[in-house]
Amino acid sequence: MPEILPRPDVIITHESDLDGLVAGVLLQRLARKLFNFNPPLEAYHYNAWRQRELREKAAWITDLTFETRLDKPNWLVIDHHVTEAVPKISQLIHDLNKSAGLLCYELCRQHGISSPALDRLVHLNNVADLFLEDDPDFVIASDYANLVKIYQFWNLHALLEGQIENLIEHPLLEVMEVKRRIEDPLGFAWSKVNITEISPMVGFVDTVIGNNNLIVHQLLEKKATAYPVLVTLFRRSNNVIIASFRSRNGEALKIAEKLQGGGHANACGATLPRSAKTIPDAINYLRQVLNPAAKDVPFNNLENLFSAIDLPAR
C-alpha cells in the first residue's frame, strides 16, 4: 500500500555524491506527480545543513542523517545512515542496507514512477554508495559515482536538465573509464608513499591523480598504512575545503563527528572552517582538533578557528 505523504514545501538532499542527486531528483518527481507542484530542491553538505534554520511547515529530507531536530509534524525523512534518534511525530523511512536513492525509488515505484533506465541507475548508485565490492557492477558503478565527485552536483543536474536517467551510458563515462585505467594505478603508487600523520589514529593521504575514494580504499584493503582512518582533502570551486574520511572498522564516523561532519561508519566527511584557506592550513586545523594538546596551530583566535561555512543552496 502506498505511503501517505505530506505535501512538501521543500526537498532537501545531500550535495556531495550521486546518492544525494538521485534521491533528491526522484523525490522532486514524486512530489510533482502527487501534488501537481514542483517544490524547490536544495542540497547541502553536513556543516551547512546543521546550521540551516528549519522554517518549513512540511519538508522531505533525504540522504542526511535523521536527528531529533527533524522530528517535526509533516516532515518526512528518507535515509540510511546510522542514527540513535527515534521519530515521534515525523515520518522516517530508514534502512541501513539500502542507499537513499533506492529507498526513494521504492517510494516512487509505489506511485507508478519507474523505468528500465531508472532501474539501472538506481542499482548502480546503490552498489557504489554502499561500496558493494562483490557486485559484478562495482567497477562501472564507481565510475558513475565519480561523475559527481569530478563534475559536482549542480553542474551535472544542469547538464542533464534534471533527467538523471540520461546518465546511463553518458559520454562522460568514457572519461571516467580512462581516468580509472590510467590514473588510478599511478595515483595509488604515489599516494602510498605520501601519507602524513594527523594523529595516531588518522593519516592524511596526499593525492595528485586518480579516484581518491578507490585509492584510499586500496590503501586500507592492502593494509599499506598503520593508520585505521585515512583522510583526503579537496577544495571546491568556492574555495571551501572538504575532508573525506575512510576506515574499515567504523572509526571514520567518530572522527568526522568531531568536526561537525557525518555520513557512514566507514565513509564520511566534514566541511572545514573558512580559516582553513589552504591544504596546509587544513592539515594544521585537523591536527589541532584531533590532538587537543597540540601547540603549533597557526589560527589566531577562536572566532577564526570555529568559523562555520554558510554554503548557498540552489
Description:
By secondary structure, the protein is of the alpha/beta class. It contains eleven helices and eleven strands. The strands form two sheets. It has a six-stranded mixed β-sheet with strand order 6-7-8-9-11-10. A five-stranded parallel β-sheet has the order 2-1-3-4-5. Strand 7 (202-205), helix 8 (212-221) and strand 8 form a beta-alpha-beta unit. It is globular. Residues 295-313 have low confidence and may be disordered.
The class by helix and strand makeup works out as alpha/beta
DSSP summary: helix tally:
11
| Oligomer status | single chain
Question: Helicity range of the residues?
Answer: 40-55%
Q: What shape does the CA trace take?
A: globular
Query: Biggest β-sheet: count, sense, barrel?
Result: 6 strands, mixed
Distance between the termini: 33 Å
* Arithmetic mean of pLDDT: 89
Name the strands of the widest sheet in spatial order. Answer: 6-7-8-9-11-10
| Strand content range | 15-25%
What is the CA-based Rg, rounded?
19 Å
The stretches of 5 or more residues where confidence is low (pLDDT under 50) are: 295-313
Total count of strands: 11
Order of helices and strands: EHEHEEEHHHHHEEHEEHEEHH
